[in-house]
């Protein structure tokens, strides 16, 4: 299906500083004018319109993702459409409760007062979306921003231009431009946007660029949510269900061609089951994507690397590993004309290889044998905290021990990636893998300022005010002694 250009639907590709400034100023003015009037009903109406527009554009979204990196239609529905539509449904169901001021009981020191925490919009927000899940990670945060009562500018990725155009079309037909606008462009456009005093910035991308975003936000003291990444480890214990582990790991790793921030980056497998597990991985890859590189290239179920630059980066990782003694025991076949890299399994991995240091973000799975879980935990803790950690074993105490002795954004036990689809769970990292959380109430709170509100009813605090007579001093001494 042909994707309409922005010009065909009357959307301008905004890239000049003047237009960026004027768009931002219009959102600021409108946000001030909407204060107090962007009610629950108004927010739900905007979410309904977004849902309806996404559904109308479903075929365009599928075609755009196919044009950008041959993403299979079922995978688009599962990983691009479902998360956003589910987020809208979940938000509408709970928004009244989230918006309601929460009563806070008075402490002894402030008896006679009434206190509340009142969520209010932060203001004008910037959403910088990545290319790997271009629709999901642009419109998912928008749901939270709107639910919290904010205006927003979305900067989609220039690496997926067809999907970016569809996002622009959806936004243009759904929202007034002083509520939500899309600004397309490259890194220079992102830099111009980051120079503006946004009230909140929601960025999804690499830790390296996340540091740049945080530095830019610091100039204006803008709050940030950073959804980053890292090397998410997977541990397959001695009592794991091997077939189930292989099935979950192959899906979590090779969906979207491995271009997933929470994909298993590498696998530690217990030496007692390593041979069986490796064979199970190969069998599962063959079952899902085809037993030969030719079959894998021809299947409609296997995505591609997004562009030539990233194809070369992932290819170089394989070559570096082989040159340093790694063994490719499945896959390794590449085709630069199609940005195709077959599902690749690698053993004999050493610490001097690039695949041991860099986030892979591609269809490469290093498999590392272990016999001492303490050494595995030490390796995990010696590296930056990952966005996700996956554990496969029938023994609950095995998983509990690892969870208690490591730090990560999330943990999946006997599953991979699926936690992203749970709207009731916070989605976010720790330190290098992210700051803040998204989804559901956690996303609403990320885009909200939680304002403290206290009202005096019949408190006695005024008895402690100056002048500090002997009587007042005795009262203060008593207060410190009793309450301190």
Automatic annotation (TrEMBL):
<dbReference type="InterPro" id="IPR012394">
    <property type="entry name" value="Aldehyde_DH_NAD(P)"/>
</dbReference>
<comment type="similarity">
    <text>Belongs to the aldehyde dehydrogenase family.</text>
</comment>
<dbReference type="InterPro" id="IPR015590">
    <property type="entry name" value="Aldehyde_DH_dom"/>
</dbReference>
<dbReference type="GO" id="GO:0006081">
    <property type="term" value="P:aldehyde metabolic process"/>
</dbReference>
<dbReference type="InterPro" id="IPR016160">
    <property type="entry name" value="Ald_DH_CS_CYS"/>
</dbReference>
<dbReference type="InterPro" id="IPR016161">
    <property type="entry name" value="Ald_DH/histidinol_DH"/>
</dbReference>
<dbReference type="GO" id="GO:0005737">
    <property type="term" value="C:cytoplasm"/>
</dbReference>
<dbReference type="InterPro" id="IPR016163">
    <property type="entry name" value="Ald_DH_C"/>
</dbReference>
<keyword id="KW-0520">NAD</keyword>
<keyword id="KW-0560">Oxidoreductase</keyword>
<dbReference type="Pfam" id="PF00171">
    <property type="entry name" value="Aldedh"/>
</dbReference>
<feature type="active site">
    <location>
        <position position="227"/>
    </location>
</feature>
<protein>
    <recommendedName>
        <fullName>Aldehyde dehydrogenase</fullName>
    </recommendedName>
</protein>
<feature type="domain" description="Aldehyde dehydrogenase">
    <location>
        <begin position="13"/>
        <end position="452"/>
    </location>
</feature>
<feature type="active site">
    <location>
        <position position="261"/>
    </location>
</feature>
<dbReference type="InterPro" id="IPR029510">
    <property type="entry name" value="Ald_DH_CS_GLU"/>
</dbReference>
<dbReference type="InterPro" id="IPR016162">
    <property type="entry name" value="Ald_DH_N"/>
</dbReference>
<dbReference type="GO" id="GO:0004029">
    <property type="term" value="F:aldehyde dehydrogenase (NAD+) activity"/>
</dbReference>
